[in-house]
Amino acid sequence: MTEDRWKHWPAPAKLNLFLHITGRRADGYHELQTLFQFLDHGDTLDFEPLADGRVESARALEGVDPGKDLTLRAAHRLREVTGHPGGVRIHVHKRLPMGGGVGGGSSDAATTLVALNALWGTGLDGASLARLGLELGADVPVFVHGTAAWAEGVGERITAVAPPEPCYLVIHPGVHISTASVFSDPGLTRDCPPITIVDFLAGQAGNVCEAVVRPRYPEVDQAMGWLGEQGVIPRLTGTGACVFGAFDSALEAREALDRLPPRWQGFVARGRNRSPLMDRLDRC
Ligand SMILES: C[C@@](CO)(OP(=O)(O)O)[C@H](O)COP(=O)(O)OP(=O)(O)OC[C@H]1O[C@@H](n2ccc(N)nc2=O)[C@H](O)[C@@H]1O
Ligand SMILES: Nc1ncnc2c1ncn2[C@@H]1O[C@H](COP(=O)(O)OP(=O)(O)O)[C@@H](O)[C@H]1O
Predict the structure, then answer these.
(1) Domain boundaries, the chain
(2) For domain 167-272, is the CATH number 3.40.50.1010?
(3) Is the whole-model pTM more than 0.90?
């Protein structure tokens, strides 16, 4: 029988509290400055050990080619790197919108790496797991480290930070935005002067993708406009499509959620500077 320690591994969402582009590398990738904070809301993963070495998902994720499923790729890479012979069946209970800028795929991949490393007893340290994670996606190392982070480079140079942890209302305006299309837009501001966390805390930071995304996606523009009417500063997370605002209390955030126009999905969640994944790891 599967032990409880294999179950209920959280894969939290993240928000980019701001996102500036400071330059472009020779390979075309953009140099960023951003601040990642986790939410106490996300996907949940259960793992089942398989003795015969197979790595499989219990149910294919809609719209994701099984060869590209980040949880399977993470498990395969961990086996390859450590030589662990065991297999695993992975159950992903999906709550996060895919490609919405809240990092669900990256978080699922990080949770797979962190959980299986503990469950298989493969003993990789955090830095080695984060390196493996970076092969899967730019945001995976932040989820592996599990602390709110000031990130630079393409997101791989990270420093732990502890901004305030408010209650957010996060809205998915129901459109899909390709990260690549935002980064290839000629109108994108790519020369932001580098800032510090003090500048961020003083309110001198935003998301440069907003200026490209809002005119191209009226639903995002309208959701941001609606959030502004609720008395909060509307923000885009990552390259979108999700938008969010910070409320003074959970009650106010929930009351705003109750007023959300029915054409949009939304949820209320608290910002967390320590990832729920780390709390789960402590209990393993
Ligand atoms: C910018 C962030 C902030 O969190 O946006 P979201 O994806 O969360 O919205 C992420 O770091 C995104 O990372 P990730 O989601 O791994 O990006 P990818 O799929 O690898 O990138 C898709 C494409 O966007 C462009 N790209 C991406 C990241 C980057 N720093 N510079 C780029 O120019 C590249 O053309 C790349 O091929
Ligand atoms: N387990 C997974 N969960 C979500 N998306 C996945 C997963 N595996 C692969 N993907 C792919 O990764 C893409 C980006 O996913 P996601 O992290 O949700 O985006 P974002 O960083 O914009 O929030 C998805 O569109 C999907 O095709």
Answers:
(1) 4-161, 167-272
(2) no
(3) yes
- Concatenated DSSP letters for 21-68? EEEE-TTSPEEEEEEEEEEEEEEEEEEEEETT--EEESSPPTT--GGG
pLDDT along the chain (284 residues), means of 10: 82 98 93 98 98 94 92 98 97 94 97 98 96 95 97 92 97 95 96 96 95 97 98 97 97 98 97 98 94
Task: Label the pairing between strands 167-172 and 87-93.
Answer: unpaired
Could you report the per-residue pLDDT of 210-259, keeping only the tens digit for each?
999 999 999 999 999 999 999 999 999 999 999 999 999 999 999 999 99
Burial tier of 114 (Cβ tally within 10 Å: 0-12, 13-18, 19+): buried
Q: Which CATH class is domain 4-161?
A: alpha beta
* ipTM value for the complex: 0.94
- In the set 40, 139, 191, 221, the catalytic residue is 139
Task: Compute φ and ψ for 255, nearest 5 degrees.
Answer: -65, -40
Ligand 2 atom with the smallest distance to the CA of 177 is 22
Ligand 2 proximity of 260 Cβ (cutoff 6 Å): no
Q: How many helices (H) and strands (E) does the chain have?
A: 10, 10
